[in-house]
């Protein structure tokens, strides 16, 4: 009985060791978007087998080869095109580094180690690893889509965060006053890029602002392992919002102003035309001066020519008298 027990115990121990050596257990690893991820292969080379006698390779869950080391030399011929130029093998740690991680790289990977000897390929080790990919969301940002009005007291807010993975669990507003803190759950809108597979998320909220109270609003994005908070949006109770503006009243006021400006313009144009038609005092003075000057010149001409006409008349009279005298003498 004791011999059987010891035999079974030895068998179980050997089985566990075989499972560990062959890599039945799987490890989990994480990598960030566009960064470098590590795919471990926890091989313990207790026999100090040279890499020149080993064949080492990794493949993904679709049996596509990421990397192959054949008897100490890299063999890119068996590597799938999507992985070429993206891997680096660390011989000291038996770890494969996968660069420029994308969301589509998440999944299961396996490493295989074989001994290449006279008997052909002999499996030495196998291990699986699950790679998860993360992308950090941007800090949530609150934007005001419409300001509060004096009549309604309602404010509309939107909060958004972009380019993250995986999709967040929850997104909400947290409103804090001097006396209370309120959580506002709203429907989260999600959109995913067809190229990068990253998520953009946003929420919207319309709420009535409490009167005579300071309000601080924060947007919270809840992820699997952490929470992201936006900068607070503060509303001061002492700051009165601008009064509501009725567009009809503004249009009417604008039309009245245009009409009044037109009337003033017409009035000034009419007044200017009248001034052009009616000569001013200075013009009348000049006309009077010109009239007086012409009158004086006329008088001077008259005075100048009167004596001449008188002399002619005298000459005519003398000539006539002489003629008459001659006539008298003739008879």
UniProtKB/TrEMBL annotation:
Biological function:
Receptor involved in the costimulatory signal essential for T-lymphocyte proliferation and interleukin-2 production, by binding CD28 or CTLA-4. May play a critical role in the early events of T-cell activation and costimulation of naive T-cells, such as deciding between immunity and anergy that is made by T-cells within 24 hours after activation. Also involved in the regulation of B cells function, plays a role in regulating the level of IgG(1) produced. Upon CD40 engagement, activates NF-kappa-B signaling pathway via phospholipase C and protein kinase C activation.
The membrane topology of this protein is: Single-pass type I membrane protein
GO biological process entries: adaptive immune response; cell surface receptor signaling pathway; cellular response to lipopolysaccharide; lymphocyte activation; negative regulation of T cell proliferation; positive regulation of T cell proliferation; T cell costimulation
Residues annotated as region Disordered?
277-331
InterPro entries reported in the protein's UniProt record: CD86_IgV, Ig-like_dom, Ig-like_dom_sf, Ig-like_fold, Ig_V-set, T-cell_Activation_Regulation
Q: Tell me the protein's name.
A: T-lymphocyte activation antigen CD86
Q: Where is the Ig-like domain?
A: 39-128
Cell compartment(s), UniProt? Cell membrane
Q: What is its main location?
A: membrane
- What Gene3D superfamilies does the annotation carry? Immunoglobulins
Which keywords fit this entry according to its UniProt record?
Adaptive immunity, Cell membrane, Disulfide bond, Glycoprotein, Immunity, Immunoglobulin domain, Membrane, Receptor, Signal, Transmembrane, Transmembrane helix, Ubl conjugation
Q: How does it assemble?
A: Homodimer. Interacts with MARCH8. Interacts (via cytoplasmic domain) with PHB1 and PHB2; the interactions increases after priming with CD40. Interacts with CD28.
Cellular component GO terms held in the UniProt record: external side of plasma membrane
Signal peptide coordinates? 1-29
Q: Where are the transmembrane segments?
A: 248-271
UniProt feature, compositional bias: Basic and acidic residues:
283-312
- Family annotation (CDD domains): IgV_CD86 (cd16087)
Regions of biased composition (Polar residues) lie at: 316-331
Entries under SMART domains matching the protein: IGv (SM00406)
């Amino acid at each position: 009985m004791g011999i059987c027990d010891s035999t079974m115990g030895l068998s179980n121990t050997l089985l566990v060791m075989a499972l560990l050596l062959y890599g039945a257990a799987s490890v989990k690893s994480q990598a960030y978007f566009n960064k470098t991820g590590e795919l471990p292969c926890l091989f313990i080379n207790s026999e100090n087998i040279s890499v020149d006698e080993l064949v080492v390779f990794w493949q993904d869950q679709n049996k596509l080869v990421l990397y192959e080391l054949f008897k100490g030399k890299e063999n890119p011929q068996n590597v799938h095109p999507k992985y070429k130029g993206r891997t680096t093998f660390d011989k000291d740690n038996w770890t494969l580094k996968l660069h420029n991680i994308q969301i589509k790289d998440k999944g299961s990977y396996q490493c295989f180690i074989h001994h290449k000897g006279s008997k052909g390929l002999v499996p030495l080790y196998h291990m699986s690893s699950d790679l998860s990919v993360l992308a950090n969301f941007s800090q949530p940002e609150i934007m005001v889509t419409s300001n509060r009005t004096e009549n309604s007291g309602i404010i509309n807010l939107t909060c958004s965060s972009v380019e993250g993975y995986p999709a967040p669990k929850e997104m909400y507003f947290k409103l804090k006053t001097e006396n209370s803190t309120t959580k506002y759950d709203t429907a989260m809108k999600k959109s995913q890029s067809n190229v990068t597979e990253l998520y953009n998320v946003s929420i919207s909220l319309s709420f009535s602002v409490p009167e005579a109270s300071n309000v601080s609003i924060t947007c919270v994005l809840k992820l699997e392992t952490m929470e992201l908070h936006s900068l607070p949006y503060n509303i001061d109770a002492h700051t009165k919002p601008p009064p509501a503006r009725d567009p009809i009243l503004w249009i009417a006021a604008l039309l009245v102003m245009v009409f009044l400006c037109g009337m003033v313009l017409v009035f000034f144009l009419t007044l200017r035309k009248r001034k052009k038609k009616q000569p001013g005092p200075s013009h009348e003075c000049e006309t009077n001066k010109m009239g007086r000057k012409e009158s004086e010149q006329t008088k001077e001409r008259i005075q100048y020519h009167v004596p001449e006409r008188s002399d002619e008349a005298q000459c005519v009279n003398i000539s006539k008298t002489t003629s008459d005298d001659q006539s008298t003498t003739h008879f």
